[in-house]
Design goal:
single chain; about 240 residues; alpha/beta; Rossmann fold; six-stranded mixed β-sheet; about 30% helix; binds adenosine-5'-triphosphate; binds magnesium ion
Length: about 240
């Protein structure tokens, strides 16, 4: 079953007299367990598309079906529930809270779910271990390298046990070796846990870790490229931690 379907999805932004058509009549089906990349020039609609998929926004027209369920007409509260239960987000600039340590950052989505402290702690530690940061859980973001901060952000995305990970330029702020580590983690989660991953990227070398690449241009799908042999990233344990 497809985990995600976009049918004739358009998104128009109206600012006074001016209307920007950020996405035009997008049709796309993503199967469960897929690793999909979205590429395209700046302004082509990549973030708009990811935000729609992530239920952070709604289509102006068309339908969006997540796990067999139409979401375009749901209330804001229902959309928030779906985000919380079903989707994990990873952003270019990590979006960690600076005053909280890694573990507290990872626990946050569970607090919104009303989970008790003991269960939260257990799950946060597991998620941090899954990204190789079990030992660093008491460090605050400023005490971690960029790659480590992104791994904390991935742990936070994972902790709620989502089916779908959405990542907007997850390696955009990282050097290429560290970016490679992030790809290795995504590929492991995709392969071992069957997580569906949709990532936006400017870098072709990053995009080719997925098995399909959607090329957007001017808010439309220009073509969908099949990647017969996706690049395989290896996890390295050599990143030098910042004290
Ligand atoms: N809130 C908004 N109001 C008006 N126009 C917007 C808004 N958000 C995005 N747009 C416009 O929609 C179009 C697509 O924007 P989007 O952010 O999706 O592009 P992108 O492909 O993610 O670009 P980048 O690579 O620079 O991140 C752009 O023309 C942008 O200016
Ligand atoms: Mg963008």
């Amino acid at each position: 079953m497809p985990i995600l379907e976009l049918k004739g999805v358009s998104r128009r932004y109206k600012n006074g007299q001016i209307t920007v058509e950020a996405l035009k009549e997008i049709d796309l089906t993503v199967e469960e367990g897929e690793f999909l990349s979205i590429m395209g020039p700046s302004g082509s609609g990549k973030s708009t598309m990811l935000n729609l998929i992530g239920c952070l926004d709604r289509p102006s027209t068309g339908s969006l079906i997540l796990n067999g369920r139409h979401v375009e007409k749901l209330s804001d509260n229902r959309l928030a529930d779906i985000r919380n239960q079903f989707i994990g987000f990873v952003f270019q600039s990590f979006h960690l809270l600076p005053d909280l340590d890694a573990q507290a950052n990872v626990e946050l989505p569970l607090i919104y779910r009303g989970m008790g402290a003991k269960e939260r702690r257990k799950r946060a530690v597991e998620a941090l271990e899954a990204v190789g940061l079990g030992e660093r859980r008491r460090h605050r973001p400023c005490q971690l390298s960029g790659g480590e901060q992104q791994r904390v952000a991935i742990a936070r995305a994972l902790v709620g046990d989502p089916a779908l990970i959405l990542a907007d330029e997850p390696t955009g702020a990282l050097d290429s070796r560290t970016g490679n580590t992030i790809m290795a983690i995504f590929q492991r989660l995709n392969r071992d846990k069957g997580l569906t991953i949709v990532q936006v990227t400017h870098e072709r070398d990053i995009a080719l870790h997925g098995s399909r690449v959607v090329h957007l241009k001017d808010g439309m799908i220009e073509n969908i490229e099949q990647v017969p042999e996706p690049l395989v990233a290896r996890e390295e344990e050599t990143e030098i931690p910042v004290a």
